[in-house]
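Holo prediction. Input below; ligand is guanosine-5'-triphosphate.
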Amino acid sequence: MNNNETIFALSSAHGKAGVSVIRVSGNDLSQLFERIINKRKFESRYAYYTNFKDDNGDLIDQCIAVYFSAPNSFTGEDIIEIYSHGAMAVINKIFDFLRNHNARIAERGEFSKRAFYNNKMDLTGVDGLIALLDAQTDKQRQSALKSMTGGDAKTYHNWRNKMIEISAYAAAILDYDEDDLPKNIDKKILNETQILMEEIKSALANQHSTRALRNGFNIALIGETNVGKSSIFNKLVGTNRAIVSDIAGTTRDVVSCQIDLDGYLVNLSDTAGIRETEDAIEKIGIERTQNEIENADLVIHVYNEVPNTLNKNEITVINKSDLLQNKSNKNVIYTSVKTDDGFDILLNTIKQKMHELMDGSLSRVAINERTSELLQETVSEMENAVSKYNGNYDMFAEHIRRASICIGKILGVITTEEIADATFSRLCLGK
Ligand SMILES: Nc1nc2c(ncn2[C@@H]2O[C@H](COP(=O)(O)OP(=O)(O)OP(=O)(O)O)[C@@H](O)[C@H]2O)c(=O)[nH]1
Ligand SMILES: [Mg+2]
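Structure of the complex:
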């Protein structure tokens, strides 16, 4: 990677704003900074007010500029931050100036990529940063910050160090006399491998909840046509998002909305009512309903009468309770969109189910597709090590070593360009 090129980008959001932040990163930017602030001497990390002029001596804008000298900066290189007025015309003019001074616009995620290669961040930290920039709710923010500040990395380093130690002891059994090694070392390393493997398996088994914490808890509202799914959906999201009518088969597509429940992000979906139909479009809608059910963390099944059998994994709602005389079944929730009856109970039940899945997920390592695959590979290497243990320390050490490489890849301690590129391309410009 060529770290010598000077790069720049708008680090704040596009669009009219009071202040915009333009970030420049490169190897030695002191001359450029002197030019921007129009001074010969400066100190790092001091804010300088400047009448920022272009190369013709015309004023671009009145700005504040700060210098972060390497390695104490986000990228580990020299960084200049320019705080200008947030107008596109000003930003474009500053960009022109920077281009004239041998800098080029940064690629997506390029600042973070440099930070990674300069050991400022590992890949779990970058994952955290990506999640933080996407965070909408408080729990998402907490989870992202934990990853970004090294919470996940600590666990992975711990696992990796243990693996390296186990593998080293296994190799030592072959090379050293029994008397020179700790007592019962063979049993100890097997035991430690098994404990470690269980810990990783448990993280994998809970990956569903950590993903729901990052991407949202999926709730699908399903049921036959006309039972009032869209009316309930609108009530829960607080706006008239979905069309409500007394014509059966009104909702044909999935209508989704994100809501914040106790700081957790929830993706609520209203779906096409399930019924036998010859209508081609409605059929597609019903297929989409099936997809929503598969992806749902929680299904709210809406009826107008108590069904013969209740599905324990779903919340059963009997809607239009204003039209019912008998509301005695304790295993269902009676609601009425007309009278508001039962909505407090419905909301509390949803929250309870959500907390059951999500609480505790903050303390676990965050797992995404990339880390999930590598963790599965880790477990399979460890299983191989244990099953081939029978006195064959060579094989054992090799499998544990390979498991430690998988964890190294999660951290980016051992990495390939593709892994890094795939991660950084998920970042926005200016990060
Ligand atoms: N009396 C009464 N009518 C209701 C209630 N909830 C919904 N309705 C009415 O029932 C009809 C159907 O409501 P929708 O919310 O469109 O039902 P849906 O389940 O989404 O229907 P589809 O999209 O066709 O599957 C509308 O006329 C609503 O006004 C309720 O609690 N009580
Ligand atoms: Mg509907």
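The two ends are 17 Å apart (CA to CA). That is the main takeaway for now.
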